[in-house]
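Slide 14.
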Amino acid sequence: MILPSEQKAVESQAEEFNQAISPALATASKSTVRLWSGSRKLSYGTVVGDGSKILTKWSELLRAKSKKIQVDTGNGYHFAKLIGVYYEEDLALLEVEGPPLTPVKWSTEPLNLGSFIAAPQPDGRLASFGVVSVLERNLRDTDLAYLGVVGNPDYDGPGLMIADVAEKSGAKTAGLKKNDIILKVGSREISGLLELKNALIGVQPGETISLLISRNGTEEKVDVLLGNRPDLPESFNARVAQMERMGGDISRVRDSFTRAIQTDMRPKPNQVGGPVADLKGRIVGITIARADRTRSFIMPAAAVMDLLDQQPDTPAAAEAKLKAQNAKQEALASQTTRPDGRMIQPPGAGRAFPTEKQMRNHLGNMERIIEHLQAEMEALEAMDEPTR
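Slide 15: predicted structure.
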């Protein structure tokens, strides 16, 4: 516990920090709005275009009690209505009633690792701050290059031994087989599944890669045309969902963005959707999700500009897509899981080798659990340190 005297010192330092950073937020705050539905805080928004439009987080907007959205500019209130949805990015476009607001002026200067960034409140005060931890990348699995192999977890030799090959995948078409050992991707040596995954980062569907494999002790080269990852059902693992919420609230939609920069900013879910500035006051993007205790995502300014050049879905079309997606996920979940969440296994199947989908889901869950365990350990070590 922090002593009262220490608490006072922390509060004083926080106020000094806010005063020091406020000049960098001055411009961005003029284009930042807070959205309300009655007494419910929904999200932040970014004023775009000619000042008559607001870009915000769609999944948070769905919590609105009515179609009339109140817009708090920090200097007054307006009303706005939903006119479009960028469904794939979970962003919504609102139209403001009345005189135009102050639109954002984007900066497309690329952010570097470790760059300091901050998000303002509408009144100019600091909402959240942090640094860039991972540069722009695509978080949507189905848009990433897909080889189509499952590694044998019991193999401990050089390379990656294939345990299974997915039907209709590039690996299957190229003739890869169970028990083949992948030794290299191009000139890069492979030591396991993680190394194979890293070797495919930056490779796009439709590109061809050269593999060096060992089959029955004989090395040979195989060219593989990569495809798209298949669409997989959402994981309903209760333990993972619980751990994701440890240390604070998270956004309801927090992944599958096509162009995202990872940061350690800690905005609340109802503070997502507003502009982000660098130390020079340049508006470099918008916040799009609080992923967990230590991670959040922003969409860079160039990506936002490209998005706004596209025609959004109508609200009705977006709601229809959401309804269809939810129905599909529920159907897939009911086919593959029991009410207690365990995987269904056909009678007499014994301990069958997990399917590719199951293994990929399990691997993803394990990675997320490890991340959260690390975060919990860091939190325990820093319990006596003041938090942001």
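Speaker note: Confidence is low (pLDDT under 50) at residues 232-247, 343-353, 381-388.
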